[in-house]
Structures are given as structure tokens and as C-alpha cells.
Amino acid sequence: MKIREMLEKKMQERQKKHRAKMVKKITVGAFAGIVTGVVGGVLLAPKAGKETRDDIAKTAKELGENAISKTTDIKENLDNKVVETKNNVASAKEKIAKYLSDKKAEKNNSEAKSVIDEKNEVEVIGKTKTEE
Length: 132
Hints:
Elements: H1 2-44, H2 49-131
Helix pairs in contact: 1-2
């Protein structure tokens, strides 16, 4: 049981690290894209101040919507990964249980064969002594 718990704990730690890295990369990428887009748009737009402010407001609104959309996508992706990992752990658990069960049955069969061999040897010795 302790090995199973250790394996599950290790797997959970890996998942958390992976999720954290993934979220960090996406956040940094999204932030860099937002900043680049806003700066480029403001600097390269040959428009009046009011138009530029309106464009900035519009872009900010779009970026907010995109951020919500990306966040939802990330959450769904992580949820899918969690389900997939749980299924993998369950599958591994079943395989380990089957392996252990097979080994136990193999050991029991080996012990039973050993007992039968000893019994036959005792019978042969007993017959040999009675024949003498």
C-alpha cells in the first residue's frame, strides 16, 4: 500500500508542476502578445487622440474577452489532463494488482507442487522400506 501511495503522490506532484509550467507559459505568452499588440497599435496608428483612445478601449475589451476564452480553454485542457491521468493511474493500479495476484498464485502453485513432490517422495521411501 505504501508503494502505491508513494507512486500516486509522486504522480500528483508531477501533474502540479506540469500544470504550473503550462499556466506560466501561457500567461507569459498572452501577456507578451497583449503588450506587443497594444504598443504596436498605439505607436504605428496615424490617428487622432480620440480615435486612438477609442481603439485602445476596443482592443482592451477584445483582449479581456480573449483572456477569458483562453482561460476557459486552459481549464478544459487541464480538466481533460486530470481525467486522463486518473485513468492512467487506475489502469496502472489494475495492472499492478493483476501482476501481484499472478505472482501470489504462482507462488501458491509452486508451494503446492513442492508439497506434492515431498508427499510422493515420502510414499516412495515408505514403499521401499516396506519391500525390504
